[in-house]
Amino acid sequence: MRSVGTGFLVAATVAAAGFLLVPRLILGAPVEPVMGFVQKIFYFHVPCATMLFLSTFTCAGGSIAYLFKGSEAGDRVAVSAGELSVLFGICTLVTGPLWGRKAWGVWWQWDARLTSSLLLELMMIAYLLARRYAGPAGRKLAAALALFAAIDVPLVYKSVDIWRTVHPQTTVVPTLDPRMRPAFWSAFALITVVWSLLLGLRVRLERARAEVEALRLDADEILEARP
Amino acid sequence: MTTTQRNQTTRSTQSLARRLSALAWFAVLFALSPGAVLAQDFQKVEGPLRPELPSVPFVAAAYGFIWIAILVYVLAVARGLSKVRKDLAELRKKIDGAGPRP
Question: How many folded domains does chain B comprise?
């Protein structure tokens, strides 16, 4: 197994500094006049949703490499990103209703953004289930599922502009109050660093598992050859 | 793997693919149906306003959930890594215990 790299240590240090700095910036940002204090969920809800999209695209990229070039490294990245997709999808689908309960008065609305996000999350769960339970062809079947999930991402993003929905539109971030921008972009950077760390850690685990499996086969051969 | 087993695997994969395809079509048709379009219309809320909910518990729950979820994931990955290290040590022990190479 390889030792922890310098990049990993730098990212971990940045993340630790972010944990101390970001909450101060969020609390220091002005309170949104219509929704009030609950709008502060926005600073982590949007980055989590973005990481859901990024993970799904990464998973699809790895799946393409595996499907068309037979790349085992691509498959390892795909499964790692697939898990992160589910993780950040859950974070998005939990923080959204918490915000909605206060801002809209309901936990959930079957509108285009919420429903398509839920569908994306279910597709990524199906990806992981197919890998685990669909037998020898499971990895290829899951890779194909990841491609469908990636196609769903632009639909989720543009759903608020295409259909009438209670969810805020895609213009919120570009037109954000300048006094809220440092808090938002620092939270975004923190979540991105955490995502990169988790992906690196998970790919490392997958690579170590593959190495142990290869070593096990070699060990069996060695042991058979010995008297 | 025998031909029968391979055929069975292919059949089960094809069956799963057919079911997933049917599910995807159902989702598309549901999204395009008039019922789903009608569901976009909102009704005017009447009656007395509900008491204002406090914001702090919602914000605390949202932030708490995110960091607990990430922490649980990190612990799961760390557990996986420690299991791999243990497997590696067992393999080394097994190879070393089998005596010198011929």
Answer: 2
Three-state secondary-structure class, residue B102: coil
Q: Kindly state the tokens that stand for A204.
A: 């490392």
Of B16, B56, B87, the CB nearest to A134: B16
How many domains, chain A?
1
Measured CA to CA, the distance from residue A85 to residue A51 in angstroms comes to 7
Set of chain B residues whose Cβ sits within 8 Å of the Cβ of A83: 73
DSSP letter (8 states) at residue A110:
-
Contact of A215 with chain B, judged by CB distance below 8 Å, is answered with yes
Range of the domain at B12: 1-40
Range of the domain at A57: 34-182
pTM of the entire predicted model: 0.79
The CA–CA distances, whole Å, from B92 to A2, A118, A127, A208, A223 equal 17, 46, 34, 15, 12
**pLDDT tens for chain B, residues 1 to 102:** 667 777 777 777 888 888 888 888 887 777 666 655 555 566 676 666 566 778 889 999 999 999 899 999 999 999 999 999 999 888 888 877 765 555
Rounded Cα distance between B88 and B84, Å, is 6
SS3 category, A98: helix
Among B46, B38, B12, residue whose Cα is nearest residue A163: B38
Helix pair angle (A112-133, A138-162), 10° resolution? 180
Q: Under a CB-based contact definition with an 8 Å cutoff, are residues A71 and A80 in contact?
A: no
Taking CB atoms and an 8 Å limit, are B77 and A202 in contact across chains?
Answer: yes
